């Protein structure tokens, strides 16, 4: 059974940065895309970014130019580097691979 564990969330001031990690196990990591979603309080879960198995990346317009998604196949790790954070980026962030979801990590952007 695939397992995904997110980490790296926290409280950051507007304009700050965080790097989220997604640790995967029990999966042929290099075969799958790593997809990041987020869910803000009272809102639907929304797609944030994807890094495909071939390293091609795509981003939601709301984060394009501020967030960078990446992966390290040797470590079975996915990453989401978030810069220039805004209060509206506050949400629980999830990674998903092969239909499995992690438990999420809270990101709060506030002064």
Walk me through the structure.
This protein has 111 residues and is mainly β. It has no helices and eleven strands. The chain has strands spanning 3-7, 10-12, 18-25, 34-39, 46-51, 57-59, 67-72, 77-82, 91-97, 100-101, 105-109. The strands form two sheets. Strands 2, 4, 5, 6, 9, 10 and 11 form a seven-stranded mixed beta sheet that branches. The chain starts with a strand and ends with a strand. The mean pLDDT is 97.
The best one-word shape is globular
Low-pLDDT segments? none
Distance between the termini: 40 Å
Helix and strand sequence: EEEEEEEEEEE
Number of helices: 0
Looking at the chains present, what oligomeric state does this protein adopt?
single chain
Strand content: over 45%
Helix content percent band = under 10%
How many β-strand runs? 11
Give the C-alpha Rg. Answer: 13 Å
Largest sheet: 7 strands, mixed
- The average pLDDT value, as a whole number, equals 97
Structural class: mainly beta
């Amino acid at each position: 059974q695939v397992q995904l564990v997110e980490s790296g969330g926290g409280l950051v001031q507007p304009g700050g940065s965080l790097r989220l990690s997604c640790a995967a196990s029990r999966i042929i990591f290099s075969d799958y895309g790593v997809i990041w979603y987020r869910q803000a309080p009272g809102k639907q879960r929304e797609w944030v970014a994807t890094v495909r198995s071939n390293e091609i990346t795509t981003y939601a317009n709301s984060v394009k130019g501020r967030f960078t998604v990446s992966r390290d196949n040797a470590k079975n790790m996915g990453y989401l580097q978030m810069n220039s954070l805004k209060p509206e980026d506050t949400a629980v962030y999830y990674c998903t691979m092969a239909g499995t979801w992690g438990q999420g990590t809270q990101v709060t952007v506030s002064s």
